[in-house]
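Morning - flavin-adenine dinucleotide inputs below, output right after.
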Amino acid sequence: MKALQSEVERRGSRIFELVDKNPEALFSKAGLYQRLMALSMRDEQFKVQLFRFVDVLPSLRGSSEIIEHLNEYFSDNGFGPLVNAGVRLARIVPWVSGPILRWNVSGMARQFIAGKNPDDVMATLRKRRAQKIGFTVDLLGEAVVSEADADEYAARYLDLLEKLAQETKNWTDPLGKNSELFPVVNLSVKLSALYSQMNPADPADAIAHLAPKLRPLLRRARELGAFINFDMESYAHKNTTLELFKTILTEDEFKDWPHVGIVMQAYLRDSEADLRDLIEWGRKRDTRFAVRLVKGAYWDYETTKSLQNGWDCPVYFQKPQSDANFETLTRLLLENESIVTAAFGSHNVRSIAHAQAFADQLGLDRGRFEFQLLYGMAGPIKRALVEMGYRVREYCPVGELLPGMAYLVRRLLENTSNEGFLRAKFAENVSAKELLRDPRELIKLNGTSPMKSQTTITTQNQHPQGSGPVDTAPDDVYRNSPLVNFVYKDSQDKMRSALREVRQRLGEKYPLVIGGEKVWTDELTPSVNPSAPDEIVGYGSEAGIPEAERAVKAAREAFGKWSRTSVEERARLLERAADILERRRYELSAVEVFEVGKPWNEADADIREAIDFCRFYAEQMRRLGRPKLTQRVPGEESYHHYWARGVAFVIAPWNFPIAILGGMASAGVVTGNTVIMKPSEQSIVCGTMLMQVFEEAGVPPGVLNFLSGHGSVIGAHLVDHKDVDLIAFTGSREVGLRIWESAGITRPGQRELKRVICEMGGKNAIIVDSDADIGEAIGYSIYSAFGYQGQKCSALSRLILLEENYDRVMERLIPAAASLRVGNPEEPGIMVGPVIDEAAYRRILDYIEVGKSEATLAYQAKDLPPKGYFIPPTIFTGVKPNMRMAREEIFGPVLSVLKVRDLDEALEVANGTDYALTAGFLSRSPDNIERVKAQLQAGNVYINRTCTGAIVGRHPFGGFKMSGSGTKAGGEDYLLNFLVPRVVTENTTRHGFAPEQTPEYRDEFLWPKSH
Ligand SMILES: Cc1cc2nc3c(=O)[nH]c(=O)nc-3n(C[C@H](O)[C@H](O)[C@H](O)COP(=O)(O)OP(=O)(O)OC[C@H]3O[C@@H](n4cnc5c(N)ncnc54)[C@H](O)[C@@H]3O)c2cc1C
């Protein structure tokens, strides 16, 4: 190892010597661009603003729009005289500065983009050829949101291949040896560009769609003697990419073709296992293939995404760990050179020198592997490598400026990264000795890398200091349960096996639970699978008035003891329930798939929410349960604390059948109330499962009672019951208003004024601003409108588009809707399943007829599954604010598009309904964002994301106006609705003598120990 390190240092020093012979700044473009980058590296806030401005600029049309954005991003931010002067100047002469700014940013992009189109790029490739540098060409493009986009991409790849082959017909290998391993034409392909519906849970579907698009490209490449490389993107697509690579290249047509390669990302913790597996596959296939080893371009994305979802992070946290792994994989590749041709994709001289030194140690000819570097970066290193006699290939992206922005921003981030090699060497002049240190040594030194690593050592895949393994925040903030990550085969297998097991028990009968006893009734209510209505998921015993009466009596009797059971004991009950939900997670998700037609990830999110409700409310109750001293006054003590209200009646909907039912019931139970819970008639089995969970958790008899039955019978009876003190309802506006009204009547013998927690529907809107990222706008809108068939109360039903970008959005919205996977959600990766039942099916179809009579049917899906309550995703345009389509809640996959003049009108339209539940705004204008945040009328306002998917603790959920009584499920103040506040005041003065210290409130009488 020592000898290797000396050799690495020797080679690295040689590269540096050659680099220093022709010194070049980090950014080859001088002037303004240099200065902006230098400022970015000094000032993180400026960097954020600059990169955001760069991101939005190409989509701005006029000079005035450009100047407005410039002002919004940079004025008054204290970025120093250069920036201030620039902004002032731009304001004075907008018609001049707009185009100049655009030109400058285009210049930035041109530094990293080798050409606008295939013709354009040839000039670059010829220049490189003269410098003995080869090429691989990659096509930049906008996010692929539809199959139309994907088909266009596939056609462009083919075109590019033809063009490159044609233009380079007479080119020979620059090294003149081993050329059979390295065809001149080399094309890099991104799979996500070829299929718009790639879903990590369903690699088989992705492969089935991608393979037919790839085969013609591979076939043609083979005919033309070209090379195809599969690029690697985010971790979500990693397994699919590997699987597809192996599958297609084992087909008869391609199994003896060596000119294919794939990327391995060394920042991934599982990359070594993947590479070993790939090599083994290659040996069995018995034909050479290639691997481009990189560290990975999505580090920020992967860490953020895993933090947000509570997933184990797939990437290393310490830069030296990625560097060290790069070297481990380097050795693995070179040791297996007999089957795999290595390409090292790095600008890091240490990583490069290590590959050189190890290859030498193995006695490998330097013409048998290559170094690959990005266009526009590290020019002197490329030249040094050529001079040393190594094979060098440049990665040349081709495309227009607008689609190139994501690529540009990735490169800017890489170039200015605190941890990056290029910044350390070319901007900060870190010494060669430091830069060539063994990364393993740096890991031992607790991660103090020469590139100013700020992370501390973390052994497993835990997030670095200041955060934890799951959704985290500062320590006193609730940590959400992680979502299941269906990227893993293990998760997919567990879900499949849960579906099989649950299928075995379809049709079982379930009892009521009253006072801890199972109660069977003569009447059974069937619960039907909406994807296959001839399939009964289960039968629920149907409660009538006698059972409702029994349940109230049991709850009333249990109340005295339960309300005086210690907060700790009640909190622990919820935590035990959460643990059981966690244990039964896949099974319960599978029940939801069958009973309410939820796609896999939606079902899992529901169980996760139920778990979160239990744990979050347990935490909250511990906080609220401590009597609190009010204002301190000498000689007087006042303690504020809470009592339970009494018997709570919980009425839940079917669309979040375990989370909402569980959320309301657990809030009732933990606050010391006793609860009668009634699931929706359409989700009795889910409700039964939840009851089982609480029974196993040890809920005492009578504290939680389970009544399934008709809302019109037992629901109405219990709402009016004199012994019911609180009603927690989530459901339709019609039923909610009836409950609200009826609960207002005081009946003989009633002790309390009834408290009603009422969460109802919405007519939710998303406004798309003129500068929004269209690809993202489409993705967010489509998911918000059609995810779970539009049956979330938060779902998007009104898309409000400004005149200015109406055509641009519609052009991509319709094909995106047309690409959605509609089907039975037992299949992984289905996004649109059936609606809940026949009544909903008919009602939504009626609304579609209303839409046809009021507006223009712009899109309706075809080819639906033959049975089941499937409604085609449908889009109406020409919808006006006064139409029924714009005012009434439909609760299905039907989207109305409204065109407005400007943002003022957009806000007026968005706010102009009876509802105020969720709303969204997609924009890149800081001022417009702030304005909309302040003015959009909704309980949950979402900026630059979907308008669905609230997470407990992070997004307390609930609306106002006709959407609800203003409560926030999953929020800090939610439990207060279940409690009566009390204040006890004691005069502690005795004959003028007042104690100096105020004691803790003695709560043993509130919650006696004997309980
Ligand atoms: C020819 C070529 C093709 C490429 N193709 C792909 C591709 O298909 N897919 C892809 O993902 N990338 C690809 N890349 C991009 C590549 O991943 C980055 O350019 C590369 O990671 C930069 O590494 P470096 O060795 O040049 O620089 P260095 O500065 O040594 O390394 C920077 C890298 O270290 C990693 N890193 C940064 N901070 C941390 C941290 N705190 N903890 C752990 N790791 C950290 C990141 O991967 C970061 O990019 C390609 C690059 C080249 C040159």
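Note: Residues 447-460, 464-474 have pLDDT under 50 and may be disordered.

O.
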